[in-house]
Structure formats: structure tokens, C-alpha cells
Write a structure and sequence with these properties.
Length: about 130
Amino acid sequence: MGGLGPGIGGMELVILAIVALVVVGPKDLPVMLRKVGQVVGRARKMAAEFRASFDDMARQSELDDLRKEVEALRQSQMQAVDFSPELDAVNAGLDMTPKPTPTPVAEPPAPDIPAPDAPPPAKPRRAKKAEG
């Protein structure tokens, strides 16, 4: 795997060097190679920055998705653990204040039945009508 990339082998590099030597000339060849090296270096640097920013965006997207999942889990756990309405209902039913004990109801008095050897009760007297 010698060469600059896929499809360029050793023989192609030799041909490129000969063409560059003929076109540019031996005097300007080092200057041109330095400029080509700088351009290639800048291209690699830009490619690395692009890759890094792409990786950061992918990581950020994953973090956002993870944050959403964590928030959804928290919400579902909070809803699953929220027993306050049920506890309020139970506490209302279990009022802890002492309640007074009910007083016994007195039985109605028995009707007056005279004793067998007692004389019958006297009848009330009627008022005499005034004559007139």
C-alpha cells in the first residue's frame, strides 16, 4: 500500500515526479513541493476539524437523546411513586382525633301498672258547670 492513496502506486508517483520536474524545472521544484505539502497539511487539518465537529455533533445528539430518556424515566418514576392522593384519602378516613364514646340511650319508662293489691288511682274531678 505505498503511495498517496487508493489507485496511486509507486510507478504512478515516479511518473508524477518526472512530469513535475519537466514542467516546473529543477530550480522551482522544492518551492512547489513545499506549497503542495502546506496545501495537503491544511486539507488534512480541515478534514480532522470536520471529523471532530461531526463527532461532537453526534455525541451531543446522543447526549440529548440520553437526557430525554433520563427525564422520561424520572417522570415515569415520579408518577409511579406519587401516592399523595391515595395517602390523603386514607388519612381522611383514618382521622386520628379521639371520638367521644356514645352515651347509652335510656330505655323508655314502663307504663304505670298498679300493683295488684294497690287501690285504683283516683279519677280527676270535673269542674262543676256554673249555672246561669
